[in-house]
Amino acid sequence: MRNNEFVITGMLVLVSVAVWVAPVSAARIADIRNTKHNFSDFVTPNILGSGDTRTVKATQEAEICVFCHTPHGANQSEGPLWNRAIPSNASYTVYSSGSIDSLIQQPNGASKLCLSCHDGSIAIGSVRNRSGSGGFQSSAINMTGTGSGGVMAPGEGNNTGYTRFLGKDLSNDHPISLTYNQALFNADGEMRNPTADPIRVRGLNPRPQLQDIHLQPAARNAPTPENGQVQCISCHDPHIRDTTDENIKFLRLNRLQKAQPDGSDNFLPATDIICLACHTKAGWEGSAHAQPNVANEIYTNAAANVREFAQGTAVWQTACLACHDTHTVQGSRRLLRGGTDGSTLTSSSGYAIKAGDGNYSVEETCFACHSSDGGTLTSQGMGTEVPDIKVDFNMPIHMPIRSSEQVAGMEVHDIGSTGLDSQELNQRGKDFIESRANLGKVSMGGSLNNRHVECTDCHNPHRVTRRRQFNQDNLNGALDAAGTHNHDNASPHTNIASGVLRGMWGVEPVYTSNNFYVEPVNFTVKRGDPGTNGSTAVTQPYVTREYQICLKCHSNYGYDEPPLLGASLVTTPSGVNGMTRYTNQAREYNSPASHAGEPRSVGSDGGAGNNNGFTWNTNNHRGWHPVMQPTGRTPSARATNQNNWTSPFNNAVGIQTMYCTDCHGSNTAAGTADPDPGQENGPVWGPHGSTNYFLLKGDWSGNAPGSPQNDFTGRPGTGDNDSGNDATTHLCFKCHRYEQYASPSGGSQASGFSGMGCMCLGMGGMGGGANFHRLHSTRVTNFRCNLCHVAVPHGWKNKNFLVNLNDVGEEAGFPPGSSNEVRNSTTNGYVQGPYYNRAVLKVRSFARSGSWSANNCGSIGVSGNGAVGVSWMVGMGGMGGMGGGGGGGSEACSNVP
C-alpha cells in the first residue's frame, strides 16, 4: 500500500479540482503518456502535436509505468511501489557555498528515486520486475537512445550542463536533501517563509497541490513544519505536462517568467518563474536583468535551442535562467550557467558551451552576454545596450579577474564567508558580503594571496538598474539611457552611486584624526537594497557612494599592510613611478571638514611637520580630490577661474564631488573622463581595464621624454610640452584644462597658483602673475606635474597636493614624526615612491591661493643650499635671491633631467 503522501484517489482528484483554482495561464496535468518519461515503444506520445520527440525509449515494452513502478515485489526502501534499485550509499559530492544556511545532507528521500536514473549508475531499463511476468523477473528492458551501458544519455556531454546525466558530483546541481524551515528563513534573509504560499510540507494540512512547492518531511510518517526538506520532487513532478507549454521540464510552476514582476513580495503562480516561489531577492523585480524594457534582447536561435528555450525568447523572460541553471556545467559554483574556464564545445545547435573540464569562473557567466563574441544574444557588445565588459579585461592592464591571473591561482571569492570578522555576521549572503580574510586581511585569518576581484565584488546582478542614480524608481516610468552616473553640466557633478552599483556592499571609514599618516580606526559596513527614493545621505546603512565599494579592498579594511605591485602579471609592475606597494586610499582620502575651504591654517593638524624652526601650518591644510567630500574651495575662495577645469568639473567648483572612476578606467579622449562622450553603448565606465598603468584613463608618469629612468618604460612625463608628447591626452588633463596648465599658447585665466614675484630674471610674461602654471610651462624645461605635486594625488598632507622637500617624513621611509630636507645641492628630481616621483619643489612657507610669490619657495638650509626664491629656482645657490639664501650647489628646478 502506498505511503500517505503518495495517495491519489479519484475522489481526492475531484476534491482538489473543486478547491484549487490556480490563477495560472496554462494548466499542469498528470499525463505521463505525453511526456518524455513515457519510455514505452507501444504508446507513442504526441506532446502538444509535436509527435514523438523522445531520444530514449524501449525497443520492446508496451507499458509506461513499469519503468518506475510495480504492483508486486517493489523496493520498500523509499517510494511508491518502486520498481528500481536505489543508488548505493556511495558518497555524492553535494552542493556547497559560503552563503548556504542549512545543512545539505547526502541525497535521501524521493531524490534517491530520481537519481536511480539521473546519476548514471543504473541502466534506465534495469527494473526489479518486468511487466506481464506473472512472477518476479528482473531482466533489463532493452532501450535505445541511452548512453553507454544503457544509462542516461549524455546530451551535449556528461559534464556540460546541457545533459540530464548528473553523475555523483552534485556540486553543480541545485541542493537537495536540505531542511527548509523557519531557521533557514531567518538565517538567509532571501528565502520565502516556509509557511507561506506556495510552499507546503507533504502530510500536513493544507495538503500540497499540484502547483505548489512540495517539501518532503525528513520523517515521512511524522511530518512537521520544521522537518520539510527540499528534494527533486519539490520542484518537479515526473508525471506532468502543461496544456500549452511544450518544454516545462516537469516543473510544477513556470519555467520562465511570463510578465514583469509586480514589485510585491507575493509569489504570482500565473506569471512568476518557479525560482521566485522560494527565493525572494530584494530589488530583483526592478533590476536591469528582470525588466522587460531593459532586458529585451533576444537569444540567438543557437543559444535558445541548446537552452531549450523557444526561439524568440527574451532575456527578461528567462529571468534567473539567464545566469543560472539548476543543473549547470561541471565545475561551476552557485549554479552559474557556463561559469567555468577551460575548453568549449560546439553544441548540436552551433552554440559554444563549456566542456566542464575547467574551474569555477564567475566572469565567464557574465561574458556570455557582456561581450561582443559571446553569440548569446542577437544584439550584444559594443554599440548595443548590452555593454561589452570583456574587451576591457583583455587590455594589457586590467583587474585580475581570471583565476590564472590571481595570486592564489584560483577563484577565492566566496560570498557569505565569515572568517574572523566581528561585524555584520547575519544574512551576509543576501548582500554579497565577503569575509575580510578573503579580501586579504592577515589579522582576520587571511593572506594577501587571497586578494582577488570578481564581477560580484562590485555589482549585485539581482539589484543593478538602468538608472543614473542608485535610489531612483526602477519599476515605473521611463528608465535612463544607462545605469552609469550623469557626467554633464546639467547639474553639479556628484559622487552618488549609480544604478549599476545599487545594492552592493561597501564600507565607510571611521576617522579619529585629521593627520595624513593616521589610518581609519574602523569601518562601517554598508549593505542592503535602498528601495525607491531612499535617502542619498552618506550615513545611510546601504551604499550611497561609489568609493564605499572601492574602499573595502583598497584600504586597511581589506589588508593590514598594503599589497605589493606586480603580484599579478596583468596589473601594474613593481617599480612603475617608483612604487613598490599600493597606498591606503581610505587614509589618503580623509577629508576633514575643518580643512575644507580656503584659507585654512591647519597644516600641522593635517600632518605637516617642523624643521629647523620652520613650520608649515599657516595657509596650509589637507588636500584631496573630492571623492569623499567637497573641498569647499570655490573659485572666489581660491582666486581662480572655474573654466580651468573641463566639463563637467567647471560647474560648482569646490562644491561638486567626483568618482574613483573619473580617473580609473579605459583610456579616454583628450579633455574628458567620459569613455564615450555624449553617447551611450560604447566603451564602458569602470575600472575594468586600461592601456595605462594603475588602470588610469590617461598616462601618468614622472619621466622626462624618452627617459629610461625610474620605471624603464620610456613614457613621457605627464604635462611635458614636448611636441611629440601629446600631453593633452595625459591623465590630469581629463579634468584640468591643458591650455591653462601646460600650454604656452592662448590666453591665460586666473589661477589659484598666481600672485607676484616671478617676473624677474626673464620669468615674466605668459600670464605673468595671473597663472604661474602657464608661466612655468615656458620657463621650465621638461616641465611635468609631478615636479611640484605628489605622484599619488588622492589626498595629501599639504594643500593642492604640493610636494615640500623641506618637510619629508615617514611617507618616504624616515622615522615617524621626523621632518627632513631632501634633494640637496642637486638638480636631479627626488624619487621615493609612492609620493615622490622626481619631485623638486621646496616650500619655505605656504601662501593663500592667489597670493603666491617666489619667496614662498626655496631651501630652508638644513642640508640644502639655503637659496630662496628665483635664485633657488634658477640655480643661483651662491647668490641668494630675493631676500635670502646662501650656500653653494644648484638645486635648480628650471631644467630637471
Primary descriptors:
897 residues, little secondary structure, 9% helix, elongated
The gist of it:
By secondary structure, this protein is largely without helices or strands.
Give the secondary structure arrangement, pairings included.
Elements: H1 10-19, E1 28-30, E2 57-58, H2 111-118, E3 143-144, E4 178-179, H3 182-188, E5 199-201, E6 213-217, E7 228-230, H4 232-235, E8 240-242, H5 301-307, H6 315-318, E9 344-346, E10 352-354, H7 362-367, E11 397-398, H8 436-439, H9 455-458, E12 506-510, E13 522-526, H10 546-551, H11 585-588, H12 603-606, E14 610-611, E15 614-615, E16 623-624, E17 689-690, H13 772-779, E18 795-796, E19 830-832, E20 836-839, H14 869-874
Parallel strand pairs: 5-6
Antiparallel strand pairs: 1-8, 2-3, 4-7, 6-7, 9-10, 11-17, 12-13, 14-15, 16-18, 19-20
